[in-house]
């Protein structure tokens, strides 16, 4: 039995699906193996307190889980970090929303964030929503949310492409236009596992990338917009593909790191220090801004049910970046 959307908004639930290899495991053993919050005895107490569910129903201490069971846990509520909680609704109909997200707001519940997310804020106002695509917490701008399962399926079937353009404030004197067609690969020189780098399709490294099963094709057109003294350039990035970190990694690999970017900025050691809360004021000043200067400026798609061509634009938040 699934949870109602009102219950999803009211209480955060962490969950796991039981794999075939753990079919028949005792529930406390399964929980201790998959959630580090408690040991086996602690999970037994959590079950008795009604904090654990199996397939949406209250769990029993002597249960054994079965393959494909959904095991859920209601963690206690804790204070959430500050976030920018004001978003703008750009478009609304019975099928879709187009929302303009601020720069310091997660889209989905993650880590310590639950109520301080665009999903919770917009869901509390409009009812159940499903985001068609996503933005990083520090990236501002336009995002599409489907209001029905039918609308989400229509956007997910590949027949409704979405044209996306970003504006990026980069360090350096970017000039003209660059058609960056190639691959995103793991940055082996980085201490951060999720960091990527871009290689051109006609470069020496491209042959190795083509044989790499984890490499992703990436196409981005980068266009000079304006120069911001003394050493920044506003660049328009038109996406031909939609990969995680595509714009950030491509600009970094071309020698124009995104201003304010902790991972793809001047020194990735700052990213590692932020995670351990060990960043000095002088080190933070190297980032120049509180967040990465990336903004989803344009969305364009054809409404899958009406056929209307919809285009939305959001200006770069110049005042936030002091120009």
List keywords for this structure.
about 325 residues; Structural Genomics Hypothetical 15.5 Kd Protein In mrcA-pckA Intergenic Region, Chain A; Pseudouridine synthase; 3 domains; four-stranded antiparallel sheet; 9 helices; 15 strands; globular
Q: Uncertain runs with pLDDT below 50, 5 residues or more?
A: none
What share of residues is helical? Answer: 10-25%
Q: Which structural class should the secondary elements be placed in?
A: alpha+beta
The total tally of domains equals 3
Compact summary:
Helix content is 21%, strand content 28%. The protein is built from nine helices and 15 strands. It has helices spanning 5-10, 27-34, 40-48, 118-126, 149-156, 206-210, 246-253, 269-275, 281-287, and strands at 14-17, 52-54, 57-58, 70-73, 88-92, 96-101, 130-131, 140-146, 163-171, 177-186, 196-200, 216-228, 232-239, 294-302, 309-313.
């Amino acid at each position: 039995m699934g949870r109602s959307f009102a219950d999803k908004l009211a209480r955060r639930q962490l969950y796991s699906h039981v794999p075939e290899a753990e079919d028949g495991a005792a529930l406390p053993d399964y929980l201790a193996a998959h959630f580090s919050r408690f040991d086996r005895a602690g999970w037994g107490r959590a079950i008795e307190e009604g904090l654990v569910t199996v397939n949406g129903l209250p769990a029993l201490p002597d249960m054994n889980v079965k393959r494909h069971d959904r095991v859920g846990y209601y963690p206690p509520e804790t204070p959430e970090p500050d976030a920018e909680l004001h978003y703008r609704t750009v478009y609304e109909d019975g099928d879709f929303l187009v929302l303009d997200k601020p720069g310091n707001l997660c889209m989905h519940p993650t880590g310590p964030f639950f109520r301080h997310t665009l999903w919770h804020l917009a869901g509390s106002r409009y009812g159940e929503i499903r985001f068609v695509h996503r933005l990083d917490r520090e990236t501002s701008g336009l995002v599409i949310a489907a209001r029905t399962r039918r609308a989400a399926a229509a956007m997910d079937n590949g027949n409704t492409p979405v044209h996306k353009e970003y504006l990026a404030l980069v360090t350096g004197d970017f000039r003209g236009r660059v058609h960056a067609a190639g691959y995103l690969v793991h940055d082996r020189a980085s201490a951060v596992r999720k960091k990527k780098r871009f290689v051109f399709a006609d470069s020496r490294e491209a042959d190795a990338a083509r044989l790499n099963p984890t490499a992703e094709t990436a196409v981005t057109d980068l266009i000079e917009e304006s120069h911001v003294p003394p050493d920044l350039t506003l660049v328009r990035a038109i996406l031909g593909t939609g990969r995680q970190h595509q714009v950030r990694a491509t600009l970094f690999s071309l020698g124009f790191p995104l201003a304010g970017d902790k991972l793809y900025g001047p020194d990735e050691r700052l990213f590692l220090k932020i995670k351990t809360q060990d960043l000095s004021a002088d080190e933070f000043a190297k980032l120049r801004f509180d967040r990465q200067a990336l903004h989803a400026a344009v969305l364009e798609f054809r409404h899958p049910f009406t056929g209307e061509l919809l285009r939305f634009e959001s200006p770069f938040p110049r005042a936030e970046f002091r120009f």
